[in-house]
Amino acid sequence: MAMKVKEVAELAGISVRTLHHYDAIGLLVPDEVTEAGYRLYSERNLELLQQILFFKALDFPLKQIKEIVSHPSFDRQEALQLHRSILLEKRNRLDRMLAVIDKTMKQAKGELEMTQEEKFAGFDFSRSPYEQEARRRWGDEAVERSKAKLGSLTKEEQSRLSEGAGEIFTRLAALRGGAPDAPEAQAAIHEWYLFISKFGVYPPEAVRGLGQMYVDDVRFTQNIDKHGEGLAAFMRDAMAVYAGRMQP
């Protein structure tokens, strides 16, 4: 049974305004809108909303969440399993901290003694290995997935791709003497972003990582710099700026 926006907001514990914003940016578009303008959310919409909120709990930006959940390769079951592992790890960490609190309260009453090590046994500010995996899976892996997709193209497709890339490289090479954050440089990088997005999902971390790879991998540097010496480094800097501006 379809649910109205207010019902969904109350169910999920978020505001109606938040749902309107998700609709406006194309992140969560209700399957039906009545003639009177009422948004109606289907079961599929609710499943997507649940997934969005899981990613938000991991501090993924909305722009990246949209890219992840809308990509054809997105596996909901895999995402749920990873989210579960992250939450279990966090629960275990909280349980350890609660145990330390209980012992500390008893020590304050003189009921037991604690070693210095026991006083700090529950604290661990390192990032969860499961969170690292989540960021690898939906962040830097985009670069590797794109490389694999490029390798599967036919020679004819690769030739057309090379021509298209060459035209953008030429435009960027003409700008490399200027600032990487200049409007014209960012416009050209946006064109490059649209071009590479045909072959994979590139959230901010992946855009930044790809630009760095242009400099770190001599094969990329040599290829790109054929269009103008220093172009690879210029693209790295311009892509870092572009990635920063992708954040919501």
TrEMBL record:
Record-linked PROSITE patterns: HTH_MERR_2
Keywords linked to the UniProt accession: Activator, DNA-binding, Transcription, Transcription regulation
Top-level taxon in the UniProt lineage: Bacteria
GO molecular function, one term: DNA-binding transcription factor activity
Record domain HTH merR-type: where: 2-71
CDD domains linked to this entry: HTH_TipAL-Mta
Pfam families given in the database record: MerR_1, TipAS
SUPFAM superfamilies associated with the record: Antibiotic binding domain of TipA-like multidrug resistance regulators, Putative DNA-binding domain
Protein name: MerR family transcriptional regulator
